[in-house]
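Obj: model holo form, ligand = beta-D-galactopyranuronic acid.
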Amino acid sequence: MYLLKTLAGAMMATAAMALTASACEVTLKSSDTHPDGYPTVEAVKHMGKLLEERTDGRLCVEVFHSAQLGQEKDTIEQTKFGVIDLNRVSMGPFNNLVEETKVVSLPYVFEGVDHMHRVMDGPIGDDILKAFEPHGYVGLAFYDGGSRSFYNKVKPIKSIEDLEGMKVRVMQSDIFVDMMTALGANATPMPYGEVYSAIQTGVIDGAENNWPSFESSGHYEVAGYYTLDEHLIVPEVLVMSKASWDKLSAEDQAAVRQAAKDSVPVMREMWVAREKASEEKVRAAGVEVITEIDKAPFMAAMDSVYEKHVTSDKLKDLVARIRATD
Ligand code: GTR
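Output (holo structure tokens):
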């Protein structure tokens, strides 16, 4: 009897495995530059689980983390052609492609993370998601990217003067290049994956990012000074290739959209926990964290960036609407 039960159990288990293995009619390939366990990676995995459950396993998601599919700028191109179905990236590398993403990449455009949430969760966020479509992407959801601050290997930055002549890596967008120029530094746009060795070998002096990225990338091991000037709060975005999207039924498209939306609160919770854990790890490693910083001169220096980039009526209107959001 025992043997029979065990045998039956084993057969059922095999059948269940076969079912899960074969039930995914479509497996959406998703890209992320971050390592396994990072909140953005886990959020897309969570979205995949919801999708699989809600479509009875018809649609699945496989997340290729750690830049396995390439650096962000390249994966954005591949996503356009449907080689990659889903992509979680910062809005920064989208700036030169989708004009509307520029407004949320402007220095000090948000008053803080809560303000950013109120903007992105409302009609402005919806308008920006829609703006991806004519360029070959379907904007699905925004995730948190904290606030970005400067780190370097040379000296503690306590004022703008300390940035003078420093070689600082930025994401590949003209806004960030102009932001560094306005601060008197030398901007070096380069892919994220090259930053660690560039700091190590002295090609650059530093870069800028949030706590979780500073920690998970290991940049804190080579850049021992972190100044919390919080010049950028750039939301992350999850997009789908329009080419892949068009292959789905209307019902499945709705399921993808909903699962992406439902992954947002889960992501935010993971983000808060990870920010704390990353900060603890970085501080424990002996990084000097400069918290006493007068942000006013940094903000004032950004006028030229706004003048140069917020030129069309469309962008002016978006910036005004962000500013008018309580
Ligand atoms: C991180 C962001 C990544 C990537 C990276 C960078 O904060 O999550 O998507 O854009 O910054 O600096 O390139």
